[in-house]
Amino acid sequence: MSKLAALDQLLEQYQQLSYHSDPVLEKRLHEAQDWLKQRIQKTHQEMFSKPEYQLMAKYFINRLYGGPEFDELSLQIERLLKYAHKAEKIIPENAIKTGLKSVGLAVLAMRLDEQVAAQLLKNYPTDQPIDDEMMLQTLIRLDQKDARLEQLNLLDDLGTALDKYMRSFIMHTAFKMCKGTAAKYKFELMYDFIGEGFVAMKPMKSAAKFIQEFTAKERTIVENVHAGKTNPFEI
Prior knowledge:
By secondary structure, the chain is mainly alpha-helical.
């Protein structure tokens, strides 16, 4: 079985999301994601501002928490699967494993955030700017607690994989040598998606440490929301 078979399942999950055929939902989805990203940046401002963490913080915000660019990435993934045998020859196996974890997290984020957007549309006017109270009530109604905690567990797994597979000099060199071939077959965005993980890790001693610090605060927020705490997004 192809090492990229799991990508096919992830792509199918992504293509089944409702916002692809609903422009109103799509607009609300991106607004909800913008709110989430701003909240994350505010929550983790001190950690994200550290020089060694700035690139990884950018990777989190731009890659792992979804966004419009993922639409274009999904098209490359779909085409990549048609040439899986070639891709497996040019992309190191451990880079594929780690890339799958990253793509899986991005798809999960899109799915959970689409649920948030749909709930917002049920309860509020489509043009009402999203604020903290709207989001709080929406998250309580949806009760995504278990799913969000699982999302954070998967992030911890990614941190372990980044430290285990992506710190090897040989791995990094092999991946860099693939760049020309990736461009030849027009897989640049997919290559960059994985490659940014390499770049983001370089200034850090441990990706797992960064991610565990991140997920610890995020778990506190999830618990605060569902425990009825006042100002649950403030830590």
